[in-house]
Structure formats: structure tokens, C-alpha cells
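Objective 1b of the project was to move from sequence-level analysis to a structural picture of ligand recognition. The entry below was assembled by the postdoctoral researcher (A.K.) and checked by the PI before modelling. It contains the amino acid sequence of the target and the SMILES of the bound compound, 2-acetamido-2-deoxy-beta-D-glucopyranose.
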Amino acid sequence: MRLPGRPSTFRRYIVAAFLLTLTFYLLPKSDTIAFLVGRKQGANKHPIDPLIRTAENEFAAKLSKSTQTLAAAAAAYRKRRGRHPPPGFDKWYEFATERDAIIVEDFWDQIYHDLEPFWGVPPARIRKDALKFDMRVQIRNGKVSTGSDWWWTQIWLKMIQTVEHLLPDMDLALNPMDEPRMMVPWEDIDEYIKKAANTKRIVNVESVVSSFSTQMLEAPQEDHSDVPPVQWEHDKHYWLIARRGCPPDSPARQAEVITDFDKPPSIASPFSLTHMKDGYVANYTLSTDFCHQPDLQGLEGIFVEPISVSTTASLIPVFGGSKLSRNNDILLPAPIYWSEEERFFGTEAAATPWASKHTSAIWRGVATGGRNRENNWRAFQRHRFAAMNSPRLLAQAVAAAQTEQPPPNFALPDKQYPLPAAARADLPGWIAKTTDIALTELACGNTGFSPSCDYTAPYFTPVKGVPMATQFTHKYLPDIDGNSFSGRYLGFLRSTSVPIKATLFREWHDARLVAWKHFVPMDGRFGDWWGILGYFLGGGGGGEKGRGEEGRDSVGEGIAEAGREWAAKVLRKEDMSVYVLRLLLEYGRVIDDKREVLGWVGDLRDEF
Ligand SMILES: *[C@@H]1O[C@H](CO)[C@@H](O)[C@H](O)[C@H]1NC(C)=O
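Corresponding predicted holo structure:
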């Protein structure tokens, strides 16, 4: 009876395959990976372990995409971008390879994210908007210059000088402020992106124009009368501005607006579940977006009251060093990273060997984040982080827990976090032993940013700053946003310590770093902080006997090393130049009247 048997075996196979496929399809991606790498791990494994394994795989996959020839780089470009590379791509490739840059097309994703909407704006309009902006640099005949002596402009000028000889003429509007400048409504961006999509195609090689137009900017008496003036908004309640960058059905747009910040904020929230798994950040990029996290409106200074707000709903070409996920500013490497100031880098001490460091976490900083006041400081991220690491405030919180009195601006560890015995027995004592975290100035918004204020005096006493060089003698370096991104991040990555990063800001380098491989990601509510500390530091005795569980010291060392090695390969000043050159070639194309047919097709025309 072979014949009837055959189809039934076959059918069984098909059904099994179908069910298996369905299972993988229905499981969230991280589950699928955990499923694939094995359930053999046993019940005692820490939930951070699979995140680190996934990161290893993600990084290996990224590296495997690196290209070794110009033709391969151009092919990778066309595949990922849907257009020909811009004119000058061959020079860019030469510039990059002469500097030993690793070429993985994904590394430049941010550029395309930032510039794509501008393909929906007429080129002449973009050029005019740039010319009307106060702070500018201009490039003419391969030379960059500026009329501005603002220190950031001067640093950006030096950065662009490294690539000026390869650039077409252009004017660049630069943001002189900490805070980003554009928040175009989601609906408008959607329109721009749809228009941009209509221009996206691989043009016939014969029709491609391979040099930039030169006449566009030669109009000294240019008439700007058809450009309506840009409207700048100054509403200090930035959440009301920020959320318009989110989709209409997103929690940020739907949630009630918080206006009373004069009480303990709500820390635990189901919104973080979207980017977390078993209590830890599983999708770092998503964790830095705020559209699914409306509770952040009461947990971050930038949403509550930034120092200054000057934002527009118009899409104009302003370049800046960092932005929130939904701002439309065009990112350049931040001036701080180019200038390599000692206070942000602490260069030599950054190489302190792991074994000679303290097994502890250190953080010092000014209570920035915005303008904190008596009735809003509880909503500021640095105040929150400092408070939850203050042994005194923790002891008060533990005592008050009996009476259900909430701590002023943080939450005690959630049950889901497997803390070491030492921490369970004595949380304030464990924190005192494993961390050294405090504010250096309270930056009181009502008194010209004075170092201490009445309203925070019961909670915080400002302490002395610690030089970067000394901070690097500790193994773990939490990094918390200030008024905008944290300028010490690059110094942390380049060091032999582990950065523990919580941020809402996007930067030029995001696509080249892998969370849990090069740094440890932390949720913006900091609820995972206790678990992260427990995982790496254990009982906090540096492995000494009788002090509770040992931490995963070698795992921490591995992340510190991987971050340092990778930063030395892809976060050098050379890499910033390579990024800026790619960005400005693309910008030069998108502002060119012939942009739709401009391209580099040298690989398709000539034989290689
Ligand atoms: C992480 O979230 C982003 C959205 O920000 C999404 O596009 C991406 O697929 C997610 N990654 C994973 C591994 O789930």
C-alpha cells in the first residue's frame, strides 16, 4: 500500500512545516531567536543573556555586509537606497578607503532618514530656506567659509574643511541651540515621503547626469519674496509640539496631556513593554522613540520645560548635532565629538585596564534636562536617576514602603528583577557599595541656575565633580541625557569601561552601534537599572566570598572591550569626515534642480 501512504506522509510533512512556519511567524522576533538558539539554557539563565546573544548575531550580520570594492559599494547603495549613488561617489569611496573606513551601507541610514522628506520639497525652495537662516556656512569653489564666530560653527567649519574640496557649492543652515528645531506634523511628513517616493528610481544609465549644476547659487540679488517667513514657536511645554511628529493613532497623540508635574511621577508603565523583553531593553532604536511612550511626557525635562524652545512645523534644511526621534533636523556629528575636549573625553585614563578598576558604577552631572522648578523637578531625568541611587533617599523609600508613601521621583525595584541577595537584604547598603552617583549642581531654574535650591535641598546636596580621568577607574558608566544628548558618550565608548545608555536623542552614529554588544541600553524610566547592576556587579563585592552572588564581570569586560575596539574602527574623526562627505554629497544632490537624473554610474558605464 505504498501509493496511498505516500500522499499522507507528504501531507503530514506539509502540515508540520506549515505549523512550524506559523509558529515562527506568530512568535515575536526575539522569541523566535531564543527558540532557535535553544531552550536548553535552563531556567536559571538571566534574561539579559539571550539579549547579548542576539546582539552578537546582529553585529556579525552587519559586519558580513561590508563591501570591498567601489562597484560592490555602489551595488549595495542601489539596493538599499533605490537610486543611483550621488555624483562624487567614487571620490567618496576613495576618501573613505584611504582612511580605512569600514564600508557597510547601513552605516549611513541616518542620512537617508533625514534627507528623504526633502525629496518632496522643490530644490529651489530648499536653497532659499537655507539662505534665510541666520547661522550658516557656505561652500563655494571647494572652500567652506562662514560669517559666524559661534564656537559650534567654528568647529563644524573645521569638520567640513576636511572634505570641502570634494563638495559642490551649497549653503548650510546650522542650529546654534542645544534643542532641535523642526517638528513637522506626521501628516505633512507622510505627504513629503509620498512625493519623495515618486522620485525614487534607478534612472537609465544613458540619462544620468554625472556632475552637479553650477549655476544655481549664482544669484546675489535673489528674490525671496515668494517664501513665506518661517513661523517659530516658543511654547515651553514641548510635549505639545513633540507629539505632532507621531502618527495620529499613536499613544503619544491619543494620551491625555499631563499638566501637573508637582507630584511623584508614574514610573512603572505598560508602554515600555513594546521595546522591552523580560524587563530589559530588547529593541534599543524603538526605546529611543517616544510615540509609544506617552508617560515620558512626565519623565523627561525636554518635554516638561526645555531651557529654550524655537521650533517650526515647516520642513526647512537645518543641520544639528542631535534630535529626538521625530524631529526633522539633519544630523551632523556633534561639535563636542569633533573637538575632543578633555572634560568629555579624559583621553589617557580611558585606557585603564579592566582588572585595575573599581567594580562599581559612577555618575556625576549637573541637574540639566531643562529648566527645573519647584513644581516640576520630579519629572527631570537626572534628578530621578540621582535620587534612586542615593542611599539616604532609598532608605527613606524602603521605610516609607510600609506606609505606601511613594518615593519623590522614582520607584523601588519591581519584583520581576532578580536582584542579588545583598540587594534584597539591604538595597540602600548595596547601592552605597556598588555606586557613586550624585548631582554636582542643582541648576535651579527659578534662580538663574544656581547650584542649590530650597525646593530640592531636602533631597539633594550638591557634591564635587569627578574628572573624567577618575570616572574611568570605575567599570560602569551610566549615561543620562542633559538638555539634549550627552556629550560624554563617545568618550565612554572609547574607554575601557561599559557605557550604560538611556537616551531619547538620535545621533549620527546610531546605525553603527549595536546595543548589548557595544554598550548596555537602559530604559528611560530606569526601572531596569537595579537589574542591570545586579547582573554585572552581583552582590557588589567584586567577587569576594561571603558577599552574595558574583556579577558577570567578564561579560562586562567583553562589552567594554567590544565597544572600545569598534569605536576605534568606526567612530574616529576620520569616520565623521566620511559621514559628512556622504551627507553633503546627498544634500548637494537634493538641492540641485536636476536632482532626479543626477548620479554616479561609473561602474555601469566603464569596465572595471
Ligand atoms: C525595532 O523597532 C523598529 C521600529 O523602531 C522596527 O523597525 C524593527 O524591526 C525592530 N527590530 C526588531 C529586531 O524587532
